[in-house]
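Render this sequence as a predicted structure.
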Amino acid sequence: MALDVVLGLQWGDEGKGKIVDVLAGRYPAVARFQGGPNAGHSLHFEGKSFVLRSIPSGIFRKDAINIVGNGVVLDPITFKQECENIEKTGVPVRDRIVIAKKAHLILPTHRLLDAANEAAMGKGKIGSTLKGIGPTYTDKVSRNGLRVGDILAGNFLERYASLKNKHVRQLQQMDFKCNPDAEEAAFMEAVGYLKQFRLVDCEYFVNQELKTKSILAEGAQGSMLDIDYGSYPFVTSSSTACAGACIGLGVAPSKIGHVYGIFKAYCTRVGSGPFPTELFDGTGDRLREIGHEFGAVTGRPRRTGWLDLVALKYAVMLSGVTDLIMMKSDCLDSFETIKVCTSYKVDGQETDQVPFDTYAHIEPVYTEFKGWNTDLTWCRKESELPEEFRNYIGFMENYLGVPIRIISLGPDRDATIMR
């Protein structure tokens, strides 16, 4: 069987939570393969709303197994809080979630280091969510980290103290005022909670599952935030492209099946970094309000802009996207004219490629479309879509070379057209 992958193709916040929830009905297992509680996957169904940070979006599907992969960084405190909130709804989370022993742990001092690093950067700050993600991946790469499986070791407390003390020394060197003991009791309580879950060797578990069933791998953040191929240094600390699913779950590339790429009908970005189509006028404010563009985790207002097909085609290429999924088309219902960026002018030269230089002056070149001025939220069949919207879809498919298979026209499960 295959490992199908769902990815965000922009700068995150594309609406992955809803789509994974919709697709999860076809899959007996859903897996997260990278990122941590800096993700915020929003689900809306049956009049209820949930924001998932570390838990895979298949958690509300009765028969689905949810896998937290080894590429994830896990904050026990946040994870415990999230699980307990879901348990209140009657969902047996401990029966539906398995956790990779090789996933790295976020310590309270990792979050303090995150805040200290961001404060030290001043105006040059990355725009971190301050969840400790970067410092945890730093410890992982430098071979100092603690992993979920370590909580079962007899000397875990000693190893925890050693890493914590290392962090305290770093914080002292940065002259960052904080209390490194403040959340230690809560952390240890959450570690005890974590022990109640099934902890697995993810690579063996996933490959064994693939012998009899398909698995849906759920990416976090977005392709343009990839540590290698995103707008470095304004990126996240993990691989958000399809290749990250192989490393983050221990699966060979030959096992990859469909690659679902999700994008919004316009663009948003949180934090610092280049954003060629960003709007600084009333149109940008209007997009933000109509689309409710405020961070699911941070609450921060998102930067908004027109759809960038240059960056989108780049992301499609990197991950070998086979099926496109477009979100929030309904947010453009009332616009007379809709713009799409189809090339860049970089230092005066026109190109259809994303430049290496993050700090280059990029001027978007737009193609304009007549708006459809129709409330799309009532459409449930492709035949009900207005001609102007179908033309818009056709242009994008031709430019990107990949079919748009799913169109989302609202936050609820049923506001979805399968093509």
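Summary. The longest helix spans residues 156-173. Residues 241 and 318 are 7 Å apart (CA to CA).
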